[in-house]
Design brief:
mainly alpha; globular; 3% strand; 12 helices
Length: 223
Protein backbone atom coordinates (compact mmCIF):
# COMPACT_ATOMS: atom_id res chain seq x y z
CA UNK A 1 0.00 0.00 0.00
CA UNK A 2 1.41 3.41 -0.95
CA UNK A 3 2.43 6.16 1.44
CA UNK A 4 -0.64 8.24 0.60
CA UNK A 5 -2.13 7.12 3.90
CA UNK A 6 0.84 8.49 5.82
CA UNK A 7 0.54 11.76 3.90
CA UNK A 8 -3.18 11.89 4.62
CA UNK A 9 -3.27 10.91 8.28
CA UNK A 10 0.37 11.47 9.33
CA UNK A 11 2.49 8.57 10.50
CA UNK A 12 2.02 9.15 14.24
CA UNK A 13 -1.76 9.13 13.84
CA UNK A 14 -1.83 6.05 11.62
CA UNK A 15 0.70 4.24 13.81
CA UNK A 16 -1.96 3.91 16.50
CA UNK A 17 -4.09 1.86 14.13
CA UNK A 18 -1.10 -0.04 12.75
CA UNK A 19 -0.16 -1.14 16.24
CA UNK A 20 -3.72 -2.24 16.91
CA UNK A 21 -3.70 -4.20 13.65
CA UNK A 22 -0.30 -5.81 14.30
CA UNK A 23 1.23 -3.98 11.33
CA UNK A 24 -1.43 -4.94 8.78
CA UNK A 25 -1.94 -1.71 6.82
CA UNK A 26 -5.17 -2.85 5.15
CA UNK A 27 -6.67 -3.79 8.51
CA UNK A 28 -5.36 -0.60 10.09
CA UNK A 29 -7.07 1.50 7.42
CA UNK A 30 -10.29 -0.47 7.88
CA UNK A 31 -10.14 0.21 11.60
CA UNK A 32 -9.55 3.90 11.01
CA UNK A 33 -12.70 4.02 8.89
CA UNK A 34 -14.54 2.04 11.54
CA UNK A 35 -13.35 4.50 14.17
CA UNK A 36 -15.00 7.29 12.19
CA UNK A 37 -18.27 5.35 12.02
CA UNK A 38 -18.18 4.58 15.73
CA UNK A 39 -17.49 8.24 16.51
CA UNK A 40 -20.45 9.32 14.39
CA UNK A 41 -22.67 6.81 16.18
CA UNK A 42 -21.63 8.07 19.60
CA UNK A 43 -22.03 11.66 18.45
CA UNK A 44 -25.68 10.85 17.68
CA UNK A 45 -26.40 9.44 21.13
CA UNK A 46 -24.32 12.00 23.01
CA UNK A 47 -26.24 14.75 21.24
CA UNK A 48 -29.55 13.30 22.42
CA UNK A 49 -28.23 12.95 25.95
CA UNK A 50 -26.73 16.45 26.06
CA UNK A 51 -30.04 18.05 25.08
CA UNK A 52 -31.86 16.11 27.79
CA UNK A 53 -29.21 16.89 30.40
CA UNK A 54 -29.02 20.62 29.78
CA UNK A 55 -32.80 21.02 29.69
CA UNK A 56 -33.17 19.10 32.95
CA UNK A 57 -30.54 21.26 34.63
CA UNK A 58 -32.16 24.39 33.22
CA UNK A 59 -35.52 23.41 34.71
CA UNK A 60 -33.91 22.76 38.10
CA UNK A 61 -32.06 26.09 38.08
CA UNK A 62 -35.16 28.00 37.00
CA UNK A 63 -37.24 26.36 39.72
CA UNK A 64 -34.64 27.39 42.29
CA UNK A 65 -35.07 31.06 41.38
CA UNK A 66 -38.50 31.45 39.75
CA UNK A 67 -38.70 35.22 40.21
CA UNK A 68 -36.77 37.77 38.21
CA UNK A 69 -34.81 37.23 35.00
CA UNK A 70 -33.85 33.81 33.69
CA UNK A 71 -30.65 32.61 35.36
CA UNK A 72 -28.60 32.89 32.14
CA UNK A 73 -29.15 36.65 32.31
CA UNK A 74 -28.25 36.76 36.00
CA UNK A 75 -25.48 34.16 36.43
CA UNK A 76 -24.50 35.51 39.86
CA UNK A 77 -27.73 34.09 41.26
CA UNK A 78 -26.39 30.54 41.10
CA UNK A 79 -22.71 31.07 40.34
CA UNK A 80 -21.72 33.88 42.65
CA UNK A 81 -18.04 34.06 43.65
CA UNK A 82 -16.93 30.91 45.44
CA UNK A 83 -13.48 31.40 46.89
CA UNK A 84 -11.25 28.36 47.21
CA UNK A 85 -7.56 27.85 47.85
CA UNK A 86 -5.06 25.91 45.76
CA UNK A 87 -2.54 23.54 47.30
CA UNK A 88 0.00 26.35 47.09
CA UNK A 89 -2.28 28.68 48.98
CA UNK A 90 -3.51 30.84 46.11
CA UNK A 91 -7.10 32.02 46.49
CA UNK A 92 -9.30 31.85 43.39
CA UNK A 93 -12.96 32.07 42.41
CA UNK A 94 -14.00 28.59 41.31
CA UNK A 95 -17.24 29.91 39.78
CA UNK A 96 -15.58 32.54 37.61
CA UNK A 97 -15.27 30.20 34.62
CA UNK A 98 -18.96 29.28 34.84
CA UNK A 99 -19.99 32.93 34.75
CA UNK A 100 -17.71 33.58 31.79
CA UNK A 101 -19.17 30.61 29.90
CA UNK A 102 -22.71 31.88 30.49
CA UNK A 103 -21.83 35.44 29.49
CA UNK A 104 -20.14 34.18 26.31
CA UNK A 105 -23.24 32.11 25.46
CA UNK A 106 -25.45 35.19 25.89
CA UNK A 107 -23.22 37.21 23.56
CA UNK A 108 -23.22 34.41 20.99
CA UNK A 109 -27.02 34.11 21.13
CA UNK A 110 -27.35 37.88 20.71
CA UNK A 111 -25.19 37.79 17.60
CA UNK A 112 -27.09 34.83 16.19
CA UNK A 113 -30.53 36.33 16.79
CA UNK A 114 -29.76 40.01 16.32
CA UNK A 115 -31.56 40.86 19.55
CA UNK A 116 -30.29 42.18 22.86
CA UNK A 117 -32.52 39.79 24.81
CA UNK A 118 -32.54 36.42 23.02
CA UNK A 119 -34.81 33.62 24.09
CA UNK A 120 -33.21 31.77 27.03
CA UNK A 121 -33.39 28.55 25.05
CA UNK A 122 -31.09 30.06 22.44
CA UNK A 123 -28.58 30.84 25.16
CA UNK A 124 -28.85 27.37 26.69
CA UNK A 125 -28.06 25.85 23.29
CA UNK A 126 -24.86 27.90 23.12
CA UNK A 127 -23.51 26.52 26.39
CA UNK A 128 -21.14 23.61 25.82
CA UNK A 129 -21.27 20.16 27.38
CA UNK A 130 -18.33 20.96 29.64
CA UNK A 131 -20.45 23.43 31.61
CA UNK A 132 -23.20 20.90 32.27
CA UNK A 133 -20.68 18.19 33.04
CA UNK A 134 -19.28 20.11 36.03
CA UNK A 135 -22.64 20.87 37.60
CA UNK A 136 -22.32 17.51 39.35
CA UNK A 137 -18.83 18.30 40.65
CA UNK A 138 -18.21 17.92 44.38
CA UNK A 139 -17.42 21.62 44.84
CA UNK A 140 -21.03 22.49 43.95
CA UNK A 141 -22.57 19.81 46.14
CA UNK A 142 -23.70 21.94 49.08
CA UNK A 143 -24.38 25.12 47.14
CA UNK A 144 -26.30 23.72 44.15
CA UNK A 145 -26.63 19.93 44.03
CA UNK A 146 -28.21 19.23 47.42
CA UNK A 147 -30.76 22.06 47.38
CA UNK A 148 -31.54 22.26 43.66
CA UNK A 149 -29.76 20.23 41.01
CA UNK A 150 -30.72 16.77 42.22
CA UNK A 151 -34.25 17.64 41.08
CA UNK A 152 -33.00 17.35 37.49
CA UNK A 153 -32.92 13.57 37.97
CA UNK A 154 -35.20 10.84 39.17
CA UNK A 155 -35.87 10.78 42.93
CA UNK A 156 -33.06 9.26 44.98
CA UNK A 157 -30.30 10.00 42.46
CA UNK A 158 -27.04 10.81 44.23
CA UNK A 159 -24.45 13.21 42.87
CA UNK A 160 -21.70 10.56 42.37
CA UNK A 161 -24.11 8.44 40.32
CA UNK A 162 -24.28 11.32 37.84
CA UNK A 163 -20.77 12.73 38.09
CA UNK A 164 -18.94 9.49 37.31
CA UNK A 165 -20.61 8.57 34.01
CA UNK A 166 -21.05 12.19 32.89
CA UNK A 167 -17.33 12.79 33.44
CA UNK A 168 -16.43 9.76 31.34
CA UNK A 169 -18.86 10.83 28.62
CA UNK A 170 -17.37 14.32 28.60
CA UNK A 171 -13.98 12.77 27.87
CA UNK A 172 -15.51 10.59 25.15
CA UNK A 173 -17.28 13.56 23.58
CA UNK A 174 -14.02 15.47 23.39
CA UNK A 175 -12.32 12.53 21.69
CA UNK A 176 -15.17 12.20 19.23
CA UNK A 177 -15.14 15.93 18.48
CA UNK A 178 -11.41 15.88 17.72
CA UNK A 179 -11.42 12.66 15.68
CA UNK A 180 -9.23 10.91 18.24
CA UNK A 181 -8.81 7.11 18.26
CA UNK A 182 -11.49 5.17 20.09
CA UNK A 183 -10.12 1.71 19.37
CA UNK A 184 -8.53 1.24 22.79
CA UNK A 185 -11.46 2.64 24.74
CA UNK A 186 -14.08 0.54 26.49
CA UNK A 187 -16.87 1.64 24.20
CA UNK A 188 -19.38 -0.88 25.51
CA UNK A 189 -18.97 0.71 28.93
CA UNK A 190 -19.36 4.21 27.51
CA UNK A 191 -22.58 3.20 25.77
CA UNK A 192 -23.77 1.83 29.10
CA UNK A 193 -22.91 5.22 30.64
CA UNK A 194 -25.12 6.96 28.09
CA UNK A 195 -28.05 4.73 28.93
CA UNK A 196 -27.39 5.08 32.66
CA UNK A 197 -27.51 8.87 32.62
CA UNK A 198 -30.49 8.88 30.26
CA UNK A 199 -32.29 6.56 32.66
CA UNK A 200 -31.57 8.88 35.56
CA UNK A 201 -33.28 11.65 33.60
CA UNK A 202 -36.26 9.52 32.58
CA UNK A 203 -37.01 5.91 31.75
CA UNK A 204 -38.65 7.03 28.52
CA UNK A 205 -35.54 8.89 27.33
CA UNK A 206 -33.40 5.84 28.03
CA UNK A 207 -35.78 3.65 26.07
CA UNK A 208 -35.83 6.09 23.15
CA UNK A 209 -32.05 6.41 22.93
CA UNK A 210 -31.60 2.65 23.19
CA UNK A 211 -34.22 2.05 20.51
CA UNK A 212 -32.74 4.55 18.05
CA UNK A 213 -29.04 4.16 18.82
CA UNK A 214 -26.61 3.35 15.99
CA UNK A 215 -23.90 2.50 18.54
CA UNK A 216 -24.53 -1.25 19.03
CA UNK A 217 -24.44 -1.83 15.29
CA UNK A 218 -21.27 0.20 14.90
CA UNK A 219 -19.52 -1.66 17.71
CA UNK A 220 -20.53 -5.02 16.29
CA UNK A 221 -19.12 -3.99 12.90
CA UNK A 222 -15.54 -3.53 14.10
CA UNK A 223 -13.10 -5.14 11.65
Amino acid sequence: MSDWIDDWLSMPRFDVYLADAAGDRDLALARYDWNARAAAAFHHDLGHLEVGLRNAYDRALRAAAPDGPHWVFAPDRHFSPLLERTRRGKVYDSNETSRKVIDAAVRSARRATGTSRPDPGKVIAEIGFGFWRYLSARRLSERLWVPYLHHAFRPGTGRPAVDGPVGRLHDLRNRVAHNEPLIRRNLDARYADILTVAGLLSAELREHIAGQSPVPGALADRP
